[in-house]
Amino acid sequence: MIRIANGQGFWGDSVEAPVEQVKRGPIDYLTLDYLAEVTMSIMQKQRSRDPRLGYARDFVEMLGRVLPELAARNIKVIANAGGVNPEACRAAVEDIIRKNGFAGRFKIGVVAGDDIMGRLNEFISAGMEMKNLDTGAPLSSVVNRVQSANVYLGAAPVAAALGQGATIVITGRVTDTGVALAPMIHEFGWAADDWDRLAAGTVAGHTVECGAQSTGGNCLIDWESIPNLADVGYPIIEANPDGTFVITKHAGTGGRVTVAGVKEQLVYEMGDPKSYITPDVVADFTTIHLEQDGENRVRFSGIRGRPATEFYKVSVSYSAGFKAVGSLVYAWPDAYRKAENAARILRERLDRLGLRFDAVLIEFVGANACHGPLAGTPPADLAEVGLRFGVRSENKAHVERFTKEIAPLVLNGPPTVTGFAGGRPKVEEIVAYWPALIPKSAVQPKISVTET
Q1: Tally of CB atoms within 10 A around 381
Q2: To bridge 283 with a disulfide, which of 276, 297, 392, 436 should be the other Cys (CB 3.0-4.6 Å)?
Q3: Residue 104, exposed/middle/buried by CB under 10 A (0-12, 13-18, 19+)?
Q4: Which residues contact 407 (CB under 8 A, 6 or more apart)?
Q5: Cα–Cα distance for residue pair 37/210, rounded to 1 Å
Q6: Closest to 390 measured CA to CA, from 320, 323, 308, 310
Q7: Exposure class string for 138-162: b at 16+ Cβ within 10 A, else e
Q8: Which of 61, 60, 55 is closest to 112 using CA atoms?
Q9: Which helix (H) or strand (E) holds 388?
Q10: Is the pLDDT of residue 42 over 90?
Q11: Could you tell me where the beta strands, DSSP code E, fall in 289-352?
Q12: DSSP run (H or E) holding 245
């Protein structure tokens, strides 16, 4: 049995969580998932400004805090913190290892080859259309606006890096599930066609990929009774060679691990429950058997899988115009009616100025922002309502002009504006997501292992 602790659900998650996972109990592996679709484009922009950037710098800082424990207890680390620049991330990790006096104690593996931005025209010329999975449009229609393009690699190259002796593995765009599945493949010797066990490891990775969302965070069921979320424990997989596993957390930490809570995480971004497709396997979530195995322990068994497909998924980000969002807060009495009138007045002024937008979004926070348009008349006794007014356009000048029309409403619109939230709105570039497929034969993962 091995214990795999996840300490990061996204880039921006708790910086203390991975440190706590290392220091508060026994683990064999620490995994960290930093990457989301938009994250890659953010990192690409950072690297374009400075070739030394493009990775999750939080990861390097965190490692510096736990190097003594990693070395003393032989804890291995796997993180997709490399983003679009895994070699720069390796250099930063090597530097912090040397500065902390641990030179020669770690072998750093890098899994790359996922970044295909420089090859898009080559692929298109070869007849690979990389059609948008949602719209069917070919990538050629936006290729000149692409900001990042990364293949979702799986667990196999990460397991290979571990097999070459890596104690810290840094990757680019490896699947969220792959960083947790890889230690099981490596430790238990699972074959590339052991579909049921690979599916089990994939389900385990999916269960912990969002951090504390599987241990009581963001939980709907009896949320008020969940103990001590201020000190919530992050999830740990206790994995067995036969593919069964337990989800738990460190003793003494807050939160709660129950069958009901775990089920909420299982349906997160699941799609077709019979066909959860990854580069490693197609997992059948309808075969999962769950049982409470004691306090804060949920056991998984019975998971079945099918052969992986011949394709990798590609995550492409591209420029899609500009947006700006402004807010005003209106106070009682008649807060909703004031906000509604302010929105109408603003729209009329924008029309008179001849401004045209591809989309306009108006929300009334406190009345309908979460649940959609109100049915009937809203309550008259709402204490305050926030008007949130956003526009989107390919024409940046129109969006910029819009940003100058919010503030005047404070004095020349309905009364009782309590604050101009955030000042004048900021014009932001829109980064859109383009999901596509590419044959696995077109992409080769690159694995390298070096000693500090």
Answers
A1: 10
A2: 276
A3: exposed
A4: 420, 424
A5: 14
A6: 323
A7: ebeebbeebbbbbbbbbbbbbbbbb
A8: 55
A9: strand 384-393
A10: no
A11: 289-292, 298-301, 304-306, 311-331
A12: strand 245-248
The CA-CA-CA angle for residues 74, 244, 291, to 5°, reads: 120
| Alpha-carbon gap, residue 436 to 452, rounded angstroms | 38
What's the sign of the alpha-carbon dihedral 77, 80, 81, 82? positive
User: Rg (Cα) of the chain, in Å, rounded?
Assistant: 25
Amino acid letter, 4: I
178-188 and 156-163 helices, crossing angle to 10°: 50
Taking each helix axis as running N to C, give the angle between helix 195-208 and helix 178-188, from 0 to 180 degrees, rounded to the nearest 10: 140
**Is the whole-model pTM more than 0.85?**
yes
Structure tokens at 87: 């070699």
Q: How far apart are CA 331 and CA 326, in angstroms?
A: 17
Q: Poorest-confidence range of 76-80, 119-123, 281-285, 374-378? A: 374-378
**Architecture category of domain 316-434 in CATH:** 2-Layer Sandwich (3.30)
Confirm if 203 and 209 have CB atoms less than 8 A apart: no
Q: Residue ranges of the alpha helices (H) in 154-281?
A: 156-163, 178-188, 195-208, 259-266
CA 28, CA 388: separation in Å to the nearest integer?
A: 47
Which string of DSSP letters, residue by residue, matches 111-165? EE--B-GGGHHHHHHTT-----TTT---GGGTGGGEEEEEE-B-SHHHHHHHHTT
**Distances, alpha carbon 2 to alpha carbons 161, 183, 243, 272, 367, in Å:** 18, 9, 12, 30, 49
Q: Contact, 89 vs 81, CB < 8 A? A: yes
Q: Residue 99 class from Cβ within 10 Å (0-12 exposed, 13-18 middle, 19+ buried)?
A: exposed
- Closest CA relative to residue 280, chosen from 172, 173, 152: 152
CA–centroid distance for 416 within its chain: 39
Which residues make beta-bridge pairs with 148? Answer: 317
Alpha helices in 327-407 (DSSP H): 335-352, 396-402
pLDDT at 375: 63
Tell me how far apart the alpha carbons of residues 322 and 425 are, in angstroms, rounded to a whole number: 12
pLDDT attached to residue 269? 86
CA 35 to CA 250: how far, in whole Å?
A: 25
pLDDT of residue 36: 81
Give the integer Cα–Cα distance in Å for 34 and 442.
26
Domain boundaries, given as residue ranges, for the chain: 2-114+152-309, 316-434
**Residue 121, both tokens:** 């025209």
